# Entry
Amino acid sequence: MQPELFLVAVDGDRIIGSVMAGYDGHRGWLYYLASDPERRGAGIGRTLVAAAEQRLVAMGCPKVQLMVRPDNEAARGFYDALGYEPFQTWDTGKRLIPDV
# Structure
């Protein structure tokens, strides 16, 4: 829906990272941040998150959120280092199209 919020990091002709973001007019969301496992720690994820945040701010987005599974310690530590603060919510969902 917002292709300007789908960011891809490349090195030559190789994709080394990506992030999807969205803005619903109330808050922004980050989805599916990924970086090449062989290049973790090189700042790819940090750069992608910063670029997504900058684009969200330019759209007037006052706040960004994301979800991380509680047992994903590496991701939690990564976002903690970027200044993201945990808060509690009740997560719920409904599958609309069955997995095949």
About this structure: The first helix runs from residue 44 to 58. The chain has one domain: 3-81. The two ends are 25 Å apart (CA to CA).
